[in-house]
Amino acid sequence: MSYAMQVFVSSQCYELRDLRSVIRDFLLKQQINPQLSDDIDFPTEPGKIPYVTCLQTLEECPLVIGIIEKAYGTSYVDWGQYKEYSGLSPTHAELRHTITTGKTLLLYVNKATMAQYVEWCSDQQIYEKAIHKHGPDIKTLKLIHELKHLNPAPYIMQYSDAAEVIQSLEGKLLNEICKSFKNYERKNRDQVGYIVDQVLNSDIEIQQKVHEKLNPILVKEYEDLKSKHKELETKLTEVERTQDSLEKIQTEKVTIEKRINALQEQLNISRIMLASAAVRDTRWLERIRTQLMPKQNSRVPFHNDAEVAIRGYHCSNMRGKPKLLAVTWAQLPYNENGLHRGYKAGLIFNGSEFSPGITWAQRQKDKTTDQIRWLLPNIYFGDYLEVSTGEDPDETPLCYRGSEFAVRNPQGELSDWIEFSFSFDDQKLKSIMMQNAEEGHHKVHCNDNQGAIEPLRKAMVFSQFLIGGNSEETIKLRNEWNDALDNATRAKLRFREGTRICVISGTYSKQTGVIEKIGLRQSTKHYWIKPDNGDPLFPAGDDEVDILNI
After folding, report:
1. Which of 80, 448, 471 is CA-nearest to residue 456?
2. Which residue in 116, 165, 169, 193 is a FRET match for 70, CA 20 to 30 A apart?
3. pLDDT at 415
4. Closest to 529 measured CA to CA, from 519, 539, 521
């Protein structure tokens, strides 16, 4: 299996989209796998928060390229299993996760932003009270401060344009690639040793074959020296010895230890070669697949080379079209037989001829011309794949109703498209839909728009898959759900369109103006303010403004 180093690129997507594209093209030319969250083939997991899956992808990359300009990004409270990042933006969480997981970080900070950081450091209070219309977010400056004061601090370089970033990467990447290859080779050595131990300990026939072909002279010398070494250790523990005799025994012991180590290395090499030869035989390959594979499915990502190799799957011996027989949904144990899966439900793909590196795709039966995204499975076996999903036993499988799936091997061979199969209880599902619709309507009637959001959403989803996305009932529920979202947001805001306000904190502090519109679907900065000085509209959060007293 060929090895390609993976590099994660962490930055604001929209603000730095051009620079991200330049870095992506540069990495591809270097035969490096760039991981950018805005790429169409970036790994995602249905039912999981997108910015959380970014951290999972980052964990697979030995190197992270971080870019900081002005914008800090949206802060999120819900970070799933990464609760320690609650309140951070995705870029901030990615950079902090890079440090905590021991990855190498190459950080590039815009020169203008770094100049503002220096000014902010000189007197934070004065800087934050001043008006910086086009300056960086204060949170961005605090992020730079956090990274600069780490011990040890990451590599940080200032840049003014994309050319400077690429020039720096050309010099830095060579060292990182070499380091990555060394780690890869070390992992392979450990992997081979582990496989040999597993093979030799699991099969008497292979043990006999290996022992029969080992050099008998080396084996006898090795065993004799081990016995001699044990005798010398016993003599050294005896008290009634002169200093001369102790030194003589110690010298002999050191000489024997050196020879034992040399013999052990030779024998290990022979054992590896002989065991590898046995494994190449299809009978031993099948034995590995059946005897060394856990009896229950466990969390075994396909891109974990050691796990894949232990199970005997290699691209070189698994060419051809993959066969996909069935795709369904099932609830799964979070931990199983002492092994960690990490989720409680998933899509199950059954078939054969699944190569390491296999990907899967989903499409609607009546929309076969839609753009298809090929994604990575969570768990890989040669005849079995798993993809983590939501846990709701009614809603989650329903969301795959009318879908069909295919798998594709790395060489490009594509399986047939197979329709999702699941035993649906339509009467029960319609009852759930009606119950949630009634609950949502009741809460709206009681002016509890926040409480109405979830039941109306669920009723809308069920209606979409049971009745149809364009049916009157689904459209009605969708409109009611959107109204509940908007009204819930409005209920949390103090002001409305047309209110004259003064900005009391944040980037546009001390500006005055009128709220021209309210972005109800924005995460924090809901107000769009038309400033009195004629500048363009700018956003502000409810906690950043107050009514203007004239």
Report:
1. 448
2. 169
3. 94
4. 539
Quickly count: other Cβ atoms within 10 Å of residue 322's Cβ. 25
**What are φ and ψ of residue 335, in 5° steps?**
-125, 140
E strands, 382-429, are 384-388, 403-408, 418-419
Confidence bin at 312 (pLDDT 50/70/90): very low
Q: Which residue has the higher pLDDT, 396 or 289?
A: 396
Statement to judge: residues 24 and 169 lie in one domain: yes
Q: Provide the 8-state DSSP code for 291.
A: I
The answer, yes or no, to whether residue 25 has pLDDT greater than 50, is yes
Q: Which of 28-42, 302-316, 495-509 has the highest mean pLDDT?
A: 495-509
Cα 7 from Cα 19, distance rounded (Å): 15
At 271 the three-state DSSP class reads helix
Q: Name the β-bridge partners of 13.
A: none
Q: Which CATH number characterizes residue 515's domain?
A: 2.30.30
Instruction: Give the DSSP H or E segment for 25.
Output: helix 17-29
Nearest to 513 by CA among 488, 536, 485, 483: 536
Q: Tell me, yes or no, whether 194 lies in a domain.
A: no
Domain boundary among 182, 213, 232: 182
Parallel/antiparallel/unpaired status of strands 339-340 and 500-503: unpaired
In terms of domains, do 300 and 277 share one? no
Is it the case that residue 285 has pLDDT exceeding 50? no
Helix extents (H) in 446-493 = 449-466, 472-492
Domain boundary among 224, 249, 284: 284
Query: Higher-confidence residue: 48 or 13?
Result: 13
Would you say residue 272 lies in a domain? yes
Pairwise CA distance, residues 119 & 115, whole Å: 6
Whether 524 and 541 have beta carbons less than 8 Å apart is answered as yes
The model's pLDDT over 117-173, given as tens digits with 9 standing for 90+, comes to 998 988 888 888 776 667 889 999 999 999 998 888 888 999 988 889 998 888 777
Amino acid of residue 26: F
* β-strand partners of 350: 326, 384
**170 and 259 inside one domain:** no
Residues 166 and 44 in one domain: yes
| Residue 119, SS3 per DSSP | helix
In this structure, the answer to whether residues 385 and 483 fall within a common structural domain is: no
More confident residue, 517 or 295: 517
Q: Is residue 188 part of a domain?
A: no
DSSP-assigned letters across all residues of 200-254:
HHH-HHHHHHHHHHS-HHHHHHHHHHHHHHHHHHHHHH-SS--HHHHHHHHHHHH
Number of domains present in the structure of the chain: 5
C-alpha to C-alpha distances, 537 to 77, 227, 517, 528, 534, nearest whole angstrom: 27, 85, 10, 6, 9
Please report whether residue 1 resides in a domain: no
* Residue 506 belongs to domain spanning: 500-547
Sign of the CA dihedral with 11 first, then 15, 21, and 22 last? negative
How confident is the model over 408-463, as pLDDT tens digits?
987 778 999 999 999 999 999 999 999 999 999 999 999 999 999 999 999 999 99
Which residues lie across from 509 on neighbouring strands? none
Of 161, 108, 104, 116, whose CA–CA distance to 142 is shortest? 116
Q: Are residues 447 and 384 in the same domain?
A: no
User: What integer pLDDT is reported at residue 343 of this predicted model?
Assistant: 81
